[in-house]
TrEMBL record:
This is Helicase C-terminal domain-containing protein. The keyword Oxidoreductase does not apply. Keywords: ATP-binding, Helicase, Hydrolase, Nucleotide-binding. Residues 1-23 are annotated as: Disordered. It comes from Emiliania huxleyi. SMART domains: HELICc. InterPro entries: Helicase_C-like (IPR001650), P-loop_NTPase (IPR027417), RNA-DNA_Helicase (IPR050699). GO terms for molecular function: ATP binding; helicase activity; hydrolase activity. It holds the Pfam family Helicase_C.
């Protein structure tokens, strides 16, 4: 509350020992959860009094369904293990990472990050798609290119390490935030998806808390433009010629579309520069007018060179 926030003498909330330090890794968060839940028995409704026959029958039916669901999940997990991981045994079984992942999966918990073994990372994805995982701690790698049946996405922090070798952290960009937040809500199954921001309780205090300005930028900021990463060079052209792939393939690429737009914009600038050059020729003869004519001519030549490069690259031939 506001009163607690303003009071300097208010005692700090008690934090569980497993959460006394900020988790540095998705696997750490998953292991923390497993340790917290290790001594907790699965929740069961209290058995009603035997005198209430209707309630007792309903309770027994619910218990049978629950036990049946548990046995079904165990069988599905065994079948998936035989299909996807058995071929890598016994070498895979000797790894601590394998034992940790399997122990977590048996509890319905998992973690997912780019540093995992690819076969284990893919196995976690398959288990999550089959609804065998109820809680997964993940980095943004889980949100890229994979359709995951998530109903709720929880952010424990809204920053990430800086790109490259630059130390420190930076806030998430709008596209990065929505790429992860957009996983909340399964198409055709959920009417609503829930996105929760729960900053990590740790010794870092409010350092993990995003400011209102950062939140507004993530939610309403401008999305970056899509930029093609296709590099059209001589080896690229030679490979396509060797495979008998014509220019029509490049016509459907984002690179070609951006180059066409660039060529159209440059053509418009050339026409404006040529009009300015003609106006300079028709004007009075002076040093200033001559300088403007030379500048306009240079601009025309530069734009024409760019236009030729754009046209060549859009057809798959670069100088």
């Amino acid at each position: 509350s506001t009163e607690h926030t303003r009071s300097a003498a208010t005692p700090q909330p008690r934090v569980h020992p497993w959460l006394s330090a900020p988790p540095r890794h998705a696997s750490t968060c998953a292991q923390v959860t497993l340790n917290l839940l290790g001594g907790v028995k699965p929740h069961r409704r209290h058995k009603p009094d035997e005198t209430d026959a209707a309630a007792l029958a309903a309770w027994e039916k619910a218990e049978q369904e629950r036990r049946g669901a548990v046995r079904t999940a165990e069988r599905v997990l065994q079948l998936m293990h035989q299909k996807h991981l058995q071929r890598y045994m016994p070498e895979l079984g000797r790894l601590d990472a394998y034992k940790e992942v399997m122990e977590l999966l048996s509890r319905g918990v998992a973690y997912h990050h780019s540093g995992m073994l690819p076969v284990l990372r893919e196995y976690v994805e398959l288990c999550f798609q089959q609804k065998l995982v109820k809680l997964v701690f993940a980095t943004e790698t889980l949100a890229v290119g994979v359709n995951m049946p998530a109903r709720t996405v929880v952010f424990s922090q809204l920053d990430k390490p800086n790109d490259g070798d630059t130390p420190g952290h930076r806030p998430l960009r709008p596209d990065e935030f929505w790429q992860m937040a957009g996983r909340a809500g399964r198409r055709g199954m959920d009417e609503l998806g829930y996105v929760i921001y729960a900053p990590t309780l740790s010794v870092a205090g409010l350092r993990n808390l995003a400011s209102p300005i950062e939140l507004r930028e993530m939610l309403c900021g401008r999305m970056p433009s899509a930029v093609s990463q296709l590099t059209v060079d001589r080896p690229f052209v030679l490979r396509h010629l060797q495979r008998d792939i014509g220019p029509e393939v490049l016509d459907r690429t984002l690179k070609n579309d951006s180059m066409r737009r660039r060529a159209a914009a440059i053509t418009t600038e050339i026409q404006a520069a040529m009009a300015a050059a003609r106006a300079g020729l028709e004007g009075p003869d002076s040093d200033a007018a001559a300088a403007r004519r030379i500048q306009a001519a240079d601009r025309c030549a530069s734009l024409a060179a760019h236009h030729s490069v754009s046209a060549c690259c859009s057809h798959g031939v670069c100088p």
